[in-house]
Design brief:
182 residues, Pnp Oxidase, Chain A, seven-stranded antiparallel beta sheet, three-stranded antiparallel beta sheet, 4 helices, 12 strands, 40% strand
Length: 182
């Protein structure tokens, strides 16, 4: 994949969007459902663009495409929940991936609430209940910084990951837990 075009500001070669998407397809990422409820309504989407920012305070970064059907609700609501999916939840991940009306997406799972009222998926590996504390526009997406205010009890099972444009499962717990130095 060779860079194409030139950036007007820096004079450096620009990476073509298709080449970037192809390269990112090879990066394995955990699969999450990002859900919200509040004045903007109840909505959700499947996301792999979620990562930890800090543990003091506990903060996640969540990216949402402004053209997604869930964007209006996310933009108006102050909270969201990130449910990390297990290997057996590929169908629900697909239903939240787009094309399915919001009401039908939620019919494909069982839900409960933690502190914020955002829906958390029953049976997920874990759920991070968050307040959105900062929003930044970057390209086609909004980057949300989300302070974690509650956690679900950890579930069991293998993790669902997305790589090479399809779902895969990987065993959880393959890496031994860190031990304190004596």
């Amino acid at each position: 994949m060779a860079p194409t075009g030139t950036d007007a500001e820096t004079g450096m070669k620009a990476v073509e969007a298709g080449a970037y998407r192809a390269a990112m397809a090879g990066v394995a990422s955990a699969v999450h459902l990002v859900t919200t409820d509040g004045p903007g309504g109840r909505a959700g989407f499947t996301a792999s663009a979620v990562c930890s920012v800090s543990d003091a305070p506990p903060t996640l970064l969540v990216c949402v495409n402004r053209s997604s059907s869930a964007f209006a609700a996310v933009a108006q609501n102050a909270a969201l929940c990130v449910s990390t999916l297990s290997a057996g939840q590929g169908e629900i991940a697909a239903s939240f991936g787009g094309g399915t009306p919001q009401e039908a997406r939620f019919a494909s799972g069982r839900w409960y609430e933690l502190a914020t009222g955002a829906p958390a998926l029953e049976g997920a590996l874990t759920a991070f209940d968050c307040r959105i504390v900062r929003r930044t526009e970057v390209g086609s997406h909004n980057v949300l910084f989300c302070e974690v205010v509650a956690l679900a009890e950890a579930g069991a099972g293998d993790a669902l990951v997305y790589a090479d444009r399809r779902y895969h499962s990987i065993p959880v717990g393959m890496v031994p837990a860190a031990q304190d130095a004596a």
